[in-house]
């Protein structure tokens, strides 16, 4: 036996719920969105396999925090996806990172800070002044990642 029930009538705005009820709280919340991209690179001044040209399927997790608006949303997940696609991914996906990123050794440690900076800049440019980047986690392999956190980026 299941408690499954088909909804008989959808809740309607301004009838069943008022607009001033949409925002449930006034607390800071953190949301995250995850993406993958494929890219090639090689490392300089490094003795090991990674000195040779090779590729990865990277996985990146973006952690953003802020306060919700009158709808109860901090930032739409679709907006995060658009920012990722238009401002960041174009430099990364199916690219040779040594060419498309600023001059740097293309280590996960350097790339994760670059992503942090690009996302922070894009949020500011798009008018999301109350939304801040809390962390970026960049997986180079399924078991190895580098992370940039707001408290480290703002202080050090």
Description of the molecule:
The structure is a single chain. With 156 residues, the protein is α+β, with helices and mostly antiparallel strands. The protein has 4 helices and 5 strands, in the order E-E-H-E-H-H-E-E-H. The protein has helices at 77-88, 97-100, 108-125, 150-155; strands spanning 28-41, 54-67, 95-96, 132-141, 144-149. Helix 1 crosses helix 3 (108-125). The longest helix has 18 residues, at 108-125. The chain is elongated. The N and C termini lie far apart (58 Å).
Summed up:
By secondary structure, this protein is α+β, with helices and mostly antiparallel strands. It is 26% helix and 29% strand.
Short descriptors:
single chain; alpha+beta; five-stranded mixed β-sheet; about 160 residues; about 25% helix
The N- and C-terminal alpha carbons lie at a distance of 58 Å
Low-confidence stretches: none
**Beta-strand residue percentage:** 25-35%
Structural class: alpha+beta
Radius of gyration: 20 Å
Major β-sheet, in short?
Answer: 5 strands, mixed
Order of helices and strands: EEHEHHEEH
Mean pLDDT value: 96
In DSSP terms (H or I, runs of 4 or more residues), the helix count works out at 4
Q: Count the E strands.
A: 5
Order of adjacent strands in the largest pleated sheet:
3-1-2-4-5
Rough outline:
elongated
Helix content: 25-40%
């Amino acid at each position: 036996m299941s408690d499954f029930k088909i909804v008989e009538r959808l809740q309607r705005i301004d009838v069943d719920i008022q607009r001033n009820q949409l925002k449930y709280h006034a607390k800071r919340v953190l949301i995250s969105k995850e993406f993958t991209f494929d890219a090639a690179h090689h490392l300089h001044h490094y003795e090991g396999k990674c000195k040779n040209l090779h590729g990865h399927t990277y996985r990146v997790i973006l952690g953003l925090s802020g306060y919700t608006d009158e709808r109860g949303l901090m930032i739409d997940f679709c907006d995060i996806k658009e920012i990722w696609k238009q401002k960041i991914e174009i430099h990364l996906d199916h690219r040779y990172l040594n060419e498309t990123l600023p001059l740097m050794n293309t280590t996960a440690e350097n790339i994760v800070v670059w992503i942090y900076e690009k996302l922070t800049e894009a949020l500011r440019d798009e008018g999301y002044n109350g939304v801040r980047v809390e962390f970026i986690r960049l997986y180079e392999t399924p078991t190895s990642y580098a992370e940039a956190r707001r408290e480290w980026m703002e202080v050090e």
